[in-house]
Write a structure and sequence with these properties.
homodimer, 197 residues, mainly alpha, Tetracycline Repressor, domain 2, DNA-binding
DNA sequence: TGTGTGAGTAAGTATTACTCACCAAAACTT
DNA sequence: AAGTTTTGGTGAGTAATACTTACTCACACA
């Protein structure tokens, strides 16, 4: 029997939820398929009906979480007018979402990027949509004269993405509190005004 | 028999070199202990004489690579006078080293951070020494009036670290060329002068 | 009534990280 | 020099675990 992938049966969703819950306390590799199946209340075999590997399951979990993440961010960005405000909102929303959804952050920042097949997953297309939105804001900001014309938009995007990630990495790894707003303000000051005295 | 760890027998070094070589083409998880042993010309059992797990072996590989990395960076930084120049040298050296040593970069950025025991490894103390040096430069720069007094040194460090990492991440993952100097210049412009027009 | 299909099960198998008992020889002790 | 300990290394296991395969049941619907 072949699964066509256009339905979402209860078993499938239970499996996704089970892995998500287990990753609250354990890293991905430390979670076994047996555990996932047990918590989901299904058999191990069913996992491989819906997902072709344990890793693909992880990617699908990320895909679901990232879909919601993108909705949040895109919707919030639309309310702001200036490029700088938009970027500040992106940073703030992202940090807030990371802080509130640790499993999401851990999967995205720590678990998936080492495997090549992630980059052909659906989850990664979500990431690219997110990144594309940031690039669009930057390019628009340059065009409108809000941002310096001599900055490379692609590199500025990398700076923003890297900054966001690293700004919460320690907090994510060691499960510490994160003051998203305060950190956003500091980042914003440096990135837009520069660190030079 | 107990291994005291203060010697460095040929077998141990061969194992480290074998994993390093294998990771040129494969991600860590795709490398098997059998492969490592075969390439090193030793038996699988010997791996577990010197390393208490496959992961600890990875941490030791990183430790060796990071030790050399730190030597390079520290030595170069010492030659510069101003804080900004020092930071530029840190960024440039790091990017250059990442570009030249892809396995090192992949291990550091993609492979180790998901496991808790990494953070009590010797390799991580090397990372902390590197990070401490950056913090010291920033604090000194603020003290001397080169950098703005209102920036948070810890957050500025995160920005620098995150920026560096993300600036080469795509190139590392997809093994593309990286123009370390050009990227460093762009980063430097934005971080020190700001992106605002 | 019969057939095809989606959802799920149960019992495997194969891989692979890791262990354990043992060995040979170098390096201390006395 | 004899005895003892330590070091570097082997090789045959074992346990765990990701994944497979053959099967069943319910039910839509023609």
């Amino acid at each position: 029997m072949k699964h066509k992938g256009n339905t979402n049966p209860p078993g499938r969703q239970k499996i996704i939820e089970a892995l998500t819950r287990l990753m609250w306390t354990k890293e991905f590799h430390a979670v076994t398929t047996a555990e996932i199946a047990e918590l989901a209340g299904v058999t191990e075999g069913l996992i491989y009906k819906y997902f072709k590997s344990k890793k693909e399951l992880l990617h699908q979990v990320l895909n679901e979480l990232f879909t919601r993440f993108n909705q949040t961010v895109f919707e919030r960005v639309a309310h702001k007018a200036s490029a700088i405000e938009k970027l500040e909102i992106v940073i703030h929303s992202s940090l807030e979402y990371y802080a509130a959804n640790r499993v999401f952050a851990r999967i995205l920042l720590l678990e998936v990027r080492n495997s090549p097949d992630y980059f052909s997953s659906e989850a990664y297309t979500r990431v690219r949509a997110y990144a594309a939105k940031i690039l669009e804001i930057i390019q628009n900001g340059i065009h409108k004269g809000e941002l310096r014309p001599d900055i490379d938009p692609l590199i500025f995007r990398k700076i923003i993405l890297g900054t966001m990630e690293h700004a919460c990495l320690g907090e994510i790894i060691f499960t510490r509190e994160l003051d998203a707003l305060a950190v956003t303000r500091h980042i914003s000051t440096i990135l837009f005004n520069g660190a030079k005295a």
